[in-house]
Specification:
16% strand, alpha/beta, 7-stranded mixed β-sheet, homodimer, 36% helix, Aspartate Aminotransferase, domain 2, two-stranded parallel sheet
Chain lengths: 377, 377
């Protein structure tokens, strides 16, 4: 039986990438040249790995069109690490950070951020059960500025950065247009839709993403940060979380998560070979539209997220009861459609349709939806 | 040509472990049961991975005889992460931490630690070029106590913890007997000799080790910490670096480095199957003695570390000149003996003889030493 893995992350990798990993065991072949050991056993300061990480950076730059005044870092600690790392590096004393809360992840980011300085929630859709992306009220921002008690000389607005999670994995909403007209850098947690669409890097100060959704296995976090933000960090923060320090050492200050970076490098080459982000975006729209259309036409299931804010990556839906939810998840598992249970804090169902999910996987899910519905009508 | 990898880390893994990884692609078999995807693609909250991480912990407990009042954590960030994490969690305000500096790693740990509180260097062998482990002068500790200006009520000595690196990867010294008679918990960076010998866990407050020497690939750090130290951490430290928080969630608070933990789990089973730590220790003594004996009998090469402080894992040696060093490294590479160049800050040669290094690798190196010497006499 062919299985399809709808896991929210760690998630499906392209079969070609898995095949390459297998071919590179027991001996890693870099550009076809055997390296005398597997990629897990070679020095991260050897020529082959340094070339690999340089190429991975260049491939990422090509895919996203990253301007030259941005640095690319490969870090550890995942999104939760960045929840602390961002304010440690960017939140100035006597200033605040403005968070837009569209789900569990940005809510946690704001809570974690408040350990390191003043955090202000500028907008939240929690009252709407995170079934939409909260709209940023620019009057609120202006008002915040007026009330700022810090240094207002030199046009200082009192805000160190704005923060948004551009795709909410748990609740299934996605920011399709990033906020503009901001007076401070925008920090974007793009973890769960990274490289599934084009984004205007130049409109952001910092973008980060854990690899384990669209780009690789767990264990590495990609950070894209504008040069001028590197200087902000105070010296007394952990060296491994100091953006400027990591940038200076090209992510090889300490031993990096070698294998995770290697798989990420393979996946970046796969995305390029498939046609890059325009093609990933076309596929993401095709996959998610098929499923949302079926759910909107369903008498049993319902996709609760506001149409214009729906995620192309994480399609969240519900049946009328938790019992039917559980029965449907079980029904799907018996057909090889795995990990469709919703997040433990939300319940319901969630189909994660990342870059590596083929259309045939969505078709198999649609068949399951129709058959299950017919038997429960 | 058979190659042997003397890399200081990331280092050799047992061939049986590499073979198992290959067999588990494209589909992970947990206890022989196919999981529908590779280990990189399954949920860390699924039953199989939770069983795997539980077994890894139990195997580690069995191997080291870890008492029940110690917790085992699988973290990210490597030793440099712990350089910050340890003082963030354990260094109390108005107290100091006492560091024993036996090489580059403990020196860096002390420098990093001083970002987060008062650090005192109790002993250092830097003047002796780190060719020995500095002996701890207990009078210095007593004197430190008397000068302590903090809270002396309730027998508070003013020291939050003592810190030692029990095997110095760069300079090749090893602590064969841990300091005793201490009045505060001992923190041990055991990264580069972890699981190569028995240690008395109960004599330490905290032991940590990056996996990429003896236990697995880069990307995961094992922390063994005594229960009563978990309560010390202030709330306002990063959640992913909060020992109590990670312990409460059994290392699954956020997405862990799944693949690195999986390989570590396989390696722990391998160590057990080989005969556990008594056997690892026997092999380590056999390998390193063969090489030190040859070097001590050599007219060309010299092992500079004090005999009683020599590392069984990282054998450091020099020829009379940097030119001969370079020629020897090249000579070895042509024979498949890889990564023998010393650390960039020290120079010379270094043969890292971790658990996965077979005796035949050391024999091949001895032949190279003899032949090179004969041609350079």
């Amino acid at each position: 039986m062919q299985t399809f893995n709808f896991s929210p992350g760690p998630a499906m990798l392209p079969p070609e990438v898995i095949e390459q990993i297998k071919n590179d065991l027991p001996e890693w072949k870099w550009k076809g040249v055997p390296q005398g050991a597997s990629v897990m056993e070679v020095s991260h300061r050897g020529k082959a790995f340094e070339e690999l990480i340089d190429e991975a950076e260049q491939d990422l730059r090509d895919l996203l069109g990253i301007p030259s005044n941005y640095r690319v870092l490969f870090m550890q600690g995942g999104a939760w690490g960045q929840f602390a790392c961002v304010p440690m590096n960017l939140l100035r004393a006597n200033e605040r950070a403005g968070y837009i809360v569209s789900g569990g992840w940005s809510k946690s980011a704001a809570e974690e951020g408040s350990k390191f300085g003043e955090v202000s929630i500028l907008a939240s859709s929690e009252d709407a059960l995170f079934n939409l992306v909260p709209k940023l009220n620019y009057d609120v921002i202006e008002n915040n500025k007026k009330n700022h008690k810090g240094d207002n000389s030199q046009g200082n607005s009192g805000t160190s950065y704005y923060y948004i999670c551009s795709n909410e994995t748990v609740y299934g909403n996605e920011v399709h247009t990033l906020p503009s007209k901001l007076d401070a850098p925008l920090v974007v947690d793009a973890s769960s839709h990274f490289l599934s669409r084009r984004i205007d890097v130049a409109s952001c100060g910092l973008i980060y993403a854990g690899a384990q959704k669209n780009v690789g296995p767990a264990g590495v976090t990609i950070v894209i940060v504008r040069d001028d933000l590197l200087d902000r960090a105070p010296k007394a923060i952990p060296a491994v979380w100091h953006y400027a320090h990591m940038a200076k050492h090209k992510s090889l200050f300490n031993t990096p998560p070698v294998f995770s970076i290697y798989v990420t490098a393979l996946t970046l080459k796969w995305i390029k070979a498939q046609g890059g982000l325009p093609e990933m975006e076309r596929r993401a729209i095709a996959r998610s539209s098929m499923l949302y259309d079926a759910l909107d036409g369903s008498k049993l299931f319902k996709a609760p997220v506001l149409i214009e804010d729906r995620s192309r990556m994480n399609v969240v839906f519900d049946s009328p009861s938790v019992e039917i939810d559980a029965a449907f998840v079980k029904f799907c598992e018996a057909r090889g459609l795995m990990s469709l249970r919703g997040h433990r804090v939300r319940g319901g169902m969630r189909a994660s349709l990342y870059n590596a999910m083929p259309v045939s996987g969505v078709e198999a899910l649609l068949s399951a939806v129709r058959e299950f519905e017919a038997s429960h009508a």
